[in-house]
């Protein structure tokens, strides 16, 4: 089963178990985000990936300059440990991590959540690739990935028990779009796949295809 098939199944199960009025509002607000065109504002193929120096789950600084000096990079953005769709994607990425390394590439995930939750997500999903903390979405903002969750979605998330200010350490209610950038060792972005709809994610196999090419 592909990653997107798994996510679609999760979405249908969620729709079946939550109040229709809540699901209706959730789907409507997500549709508005998609139709707003925010995905088109993300940094484009052919542009140079802005440099980053962010801390991993152990507090070590990971530099994009050092990573790219070793080979191509797959850079994945996720929302946080509280997002089940994100965790399923991280598990799928972990399954191909050894293949990525064997082909000379690197895999890195980035989230705005506080470092203590980053450490938890690594343990929860048995991850062996770096997971970086992007405090206040500072780096994601450079890639034009950040948006403020609409008030209605803030209310829905709160009703689900998702305390975003606690996870991110601020009350901005800002998130990065989920997505992935495939970057050549020259720092040039070769592929961009971002989604305002958090239930849509690029397939991990795309990374392998990229490295083969």
Please describe what this structure looks like:
43% of the residues lie in helices and 18% in strands. With 213 residues, it is an alpha/beta fold. It starts with a helix and ends with a helix. The model has no long low-confidence stretch (mean pLDDT 95).
Q: What's the short story on this structure?
A:
With 213 residues, the chain is α/β, with parallel strands linked by helices.
What's the helical proportion of residues? 40-55%
Cα(first) to Cα(last) distance is: 24 Å
Based on secondary structure, the structural category is: alpha/beta
Characterize the largest beta sheet: strand count, sense, and whether it forms a barrel. Answer: 5 strands, mixed
Apparent shape: globular
How does the SSE layout of this entry go?
Elements: H1 3-17, H2 20-35, E1 53-55, E2 61-63, H3 64-68, E3 73-77, H4 84-95, H5 97-102, E4 106-111, H6 115-125, E5 131-133, H7 138-142, E6 146-148, H8 151-159, H9 164-168, E7 174-176, E8 178-183, E9 189-195, H10 205-212
Helix pairs in contact: 1-4
